[in-house]
Each structure stands twice: as C-alpha cells, then as structure tokens.
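To whoever is covering the structure queue this week,

Two jobs came back overnight. Logging them here so there's a record in the thread.

Job A:
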Amino acid sequence: MQRLLLIDDDRTLTSLLGDQLRSVGYAIEVANDGGQGLQHVMAQQPDLIVLDVMMPGTDGWEVLERLGGRSSCPVIMLTAKDQEFDKLRAFHLGVDDYVTKPFSFAELTARIGAVLARAGRLGEPQELIVTGDLQIDLVKRRVARRGSPIDLTPTEFRLLEVLSRHHDVPVPSEALLEQVWGSDYAGEIEHVKHFIWSLRRKLEADPGDPQHLLTERGFGYRLV
C-alpha cells in the first residue's frame, strides 16, 4: 500500500482529502505544519508528499529547501497562487506537479496516481501474474484463462501489462494513456474506456460484472 504524507495547516482539508485518498487504497499520514512534516519525511520516507505552500512558521518553500537532496520522494505542491513565477520556483525546487486551489479531490487523486506511476512507485515488476483464473506471462507475452490461451491485440496486451505491473493498485486513466498510447493522446480518456471494455470481453467470465478489471470511479482502473 502506497503511503502519502499530507502537509497542510488546513485540518478540515486534510481530514476530507485523507478520507478520499484512503477510499482508493492509499495509507495516509498528516502533518499540520512544515516542521512536523519534515520530521515525518525523515522518519518514514513516504511514497509521495502533498505539500501546501502557505503555512505559518515553516512554509512549503522552506520545507522544499530543507528537504534538498535528502529525500527522493515525489512532491505535489498545493497553493492558492497561480503566478508563473511561483510555478517556476516550485519546479526549480524539485516539485513533480503543481495544483492551484481550489481544486477537486478527483483531480488531485488522478495527479497523485500519475506522479506515482511516473516515479515507478506503483509496484515491483513481476514476470508472471496469476490472479484468480487468469495467468499473465509478461515475458512470453501470453495470457490464459483456466489454461486456455487468449488472443490479445498489441494495444490490449500493453494496457494489460501496465495494469499487471501495478497489480492491485489503482492506476489513473491519464497514466494509462501516457504509458500505452503516449503524450499525443493526452485527455482522450475514451481510448482507455474502449480498450478496457475490449479486455473485459476477452478476460472476464461476465464482462458486465468484472472480477479482474475493476473501475475506480472518477480515477482509473485496477487489476485484482
């Protein structure tokens, strides 16, 4: 289970956002000031940090500067500012993504999943995935259900491969688009939906009641 650290002095926001992120399978730690957040990072090394800029005492900028090269953990910065200078400063300090308040929880959840995918923190690669009645051999590029081979197109297999490498972890639709189709297809979520349905018709006993390829509503998909 991926561990996220929320550093924000808005306790209402961290409570509601924490509930949202737990509901899609993340473990959540909360720090309500920058100093406490730094202690959490040094002690626990989370998989990703969601960091607010404007906090009393040690603000988000200082947290980033003090982290320096001491942590490889990806960071998503939250701020009410929308100035180009602030964005450039954030990326110069090593921020992986930048979300301007107000934002939707669905948007931030999708961005978290995309950053984790780019950072390679969604799971360790495996050569053979066995889940229920499915066998997925990522080396030989073969798929079988109950021992019977299943023919997949190259795109179908690539989509299944990405989901398999992040087995049992929700992967955002945007990350699937990037990894399967490339950046030219950014925003074309219908591609993902179409191929997920195609995979379900081949892999599921009942495509209308999938047991392997599950939808994480408003987020993406998960192979279980």
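Job B:
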Amino acid sequence: MQVYQSIIQHLKSKYPEGEAKAMARMILEDYFHISMLDVYMDKDIAFSEENKEELGKIFIRLDNYEPIQYVLGRVLFGGYTFKVTTDVLIPRPETEELVEWILQSWRSFGFILDIGTGSGCIPIVLSGKHPETKIRSCDISEETLNVARENNELNRTHVDFFHCDILNEVPAGKYDVIVSNPPYICPSEKQLMERNVLDWEPHRALFVPQEDPLLFYRRIASLGIDILKDNGCLFLEINPLYVDDIFCLLSALGYDDIEKKKDYAGKDRMVRAIKMKKNEGTK
C-alpha cells in the first residue's frame, strides 16, 4: 500500500486525485504487474531499485502531461490490447460505443471499409468478432499504418491496411459498411481541450479547418454514394456541435434511415445512415 500511496501523492501535484488514483493503478498493474488485491491486502511487495528507477522515468513523462497510455505503450479497447504511440490517437470509450453499435447492427456484412484507422482499433475489433468478414482500413500516414499493422499481428486479426489520401483518392471495391472516426475538432475548440491531448496526440487526426468543419464527413459520405452497395451502412463518429449539419448533409446526398446515437456522456456522438437502392429510371 505504501508504494501505491506514494505514487498517488506524487501525481496529485499535477492531476486531480481521482485521476491520480486511476493512473497509479495502471502503473502498478499494467507496467509492474503488481496486483491491486495484493496492494489492498497490504502484502509485502518487492519494489527493487530497478523498479524505483523505472518509476522515476514514468514520473518525468507524466509530469510533462504525456498521456498514461503513451507512457505504458498500450491500451485496452473492446477487449483487445493495442499498442499506442504518438503517431496514433489514443482510442476513446466513445469509439468503443461506435464499434458496439456496428456489432449490434450486424447483418452478414461481407466487406467493410474503415477510413482513418489510427491504431486500427475499429477494424481489428470487428475482425476479431467476425473473422469471416473482409475488412480494409486506410490512413494517410505510413507511421500510423505501421502501428496499426503491429496491432493486427498482436491480435492475430486479418485486416488489410493500406495507404490512402481519402480527400484525393477513391478506395477500390464495393462495401457493405463504411465506418470512420475522422478528424472533427475545430481550432476554436482548443481552449476546451486538456493539455495532455493538445501537447501529445497527433493534430492531423484531431483537427479540421475552422472554415470547413464538415470536410471529412462530406468527402466520406460522397464516397459512400459511389462505393457502398445498395442498402449499405455508413457509420460515423461525429462532433456533437454539428449533428444537425451532418443530418442535412447525409439527407441531401440521398441517404435514408439516418439515425443518431448518444455516447455514455449523453452527447450526440454517432450517426448511422443507409444508402438506399435507386428506383429504376432515377438519375
């Protein structure tokens, strides 16, 4: 218990107490493999000089507001372990909810495209749950794709990761589902963001131009009209500030059954839409 309390005491100088306790648990369990049950039972925990030196290095990084997930180098998402580096966004609980919505909506999807893969968390969980499904996933960054491919091997899944500048290229194929968690934060929202996000996570995966907040939604939804099969599904994680604009965009492009879903915090965070089959004679 003494080690646990000393870690909390150090972290409280930079972080709220609740967050400091959660980080202390992650450090002990995930990095040093010390059971919290042993900690709470006040068992004699061997914490070597080498361990103390490692803990000191961890403190230096956390004191600079580096996210604990980057410090530990991994994160749990959807029951799977993912390597994370500063080349990828840290997978969020909201994105887990998007994946769960896809799984709940499952109807023999044979071919899925994930756009802007990051760590590969979305397609890898889908592939792990439905290994019979063919899943392709793209990103503009080769460094990001390297991390995603490592996670593909780590989790023994079979996602086809490929490079694509989605704003200027069209992925080959016809898909039953397109899913994306694209950049959707405007620069004006920076003042509301935590330092550990702004200072460490890749801005290219976070921000869109202030003058065009729907940039990626418009492009992805337009692509969907061409590369989604009839009755194919489009799943998007969204910025709650623009939910009405996204609804109007999807409706104008011809999508049907447009539905929004709130995240665990009660914010409009996800949208699902169906590409309907055109009637004969429709141009």
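Note for Job B: The mean pLDDT is 93.

Please reply-all if you pick these up so we don't duplicate work.
Q.
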